[in-house]
Amino acid sequence: MDINSFMESFKENLLNLFNDNLLFLGIQGSYGRGEANESSDIDPVIILRQCGKDEILKYRSYIDTLPEKDILCGFVSSSDELRAWESADRAQLILDTKPVYGELTPLCPEITHDDIIRAVQQGACAIYHASSHNILHARDWSILPELYKSARFTIRMKHYLNTGVYVSAFSELIAVVDEEEKMILETQYPSTEDDAFILFEWASETMRNINTN
């Protein structure tokens, strides 16, 4: 898919649909990073002045007309909701979104150092808890690909916290992290108990050391 052509057409249609109610349109996820493949979803970020029932139903009716409707995901909200969003999640949204129309940062509080710490803490704690439960109880190694995917986002935020450099593409992040994190980034099909323990131990170390960064 030519994502640039798609997003240009998408932008024009949203402007026709919402007029000056549309404040921002961007793209995040694998297409935003330039790492999409044939199974990738399209993740637009749409910020409106007002986003209530009428706007949601109008947008839903529009995307139902698109051939790509089954792979459209993304984030839709008003600017008020965006400002009220949990700050660590909002920081990741801002950093991970490539603008197509408008600017995202003027609509949000400034990202703080504490926001980045919280993003890393939340990611590592969630992975630790899920890994521990899975190793002890569920023993379902089929969930490991999703846990490893979550870890990649947390590794990216951890690198940003430690260096001040945000590396959007995971293919580029591999070159600037340590060997343990490089292995997590490179593992495509985790499926064993050993893979589960790698993630468990990484999450444990990240949780214990986060406050020293």
Would you write up a description of this structure?
With 213 residues, the protein is an alpha+beta fold. Helix 6 (113-138) packs antiparallel against helix 10 (193-209). The protein contains ten helices and four strands; from the N terminus they run αβαβαβααβααααα. It has helices at 3-18, 29-33, 53-63, 79-84, 87-96, 113-138, 144-163, 170-173, 179-186, 193-209; strands spanning 22-28, 43-48, 75-78, 98-101. The mean pLDDT is 96. Helix content is 58%, strand content 10%. The chain has a four-stranded mixed beta sheet, sandwiched between helices.
Coarse shape: globular
Beta-strand percent range:
5-15%
Report mean pLDDT, rounded to a whole number.
96
Compressed to H and E, one letter per element, the order equals: HEHEHEHHEHHHHH
Number of helices: 10
Strand segment tally: 4
Secondary-structure-based class equals: alpha+beta
Short description:
By secondary structure, the protein is α+β, with helices and mostly antiparallel strands. It has helices at residues 3-18, 29-33, 53-63, 79-84, 87-96, 113-138, 144-163, 170-173, 179-186, 193-209, and strands spanning 22-28, 43-48, 75-78, 98-101. A four-stranded mixed sheet has the order 3-2-1-4, sandwiched between helices.
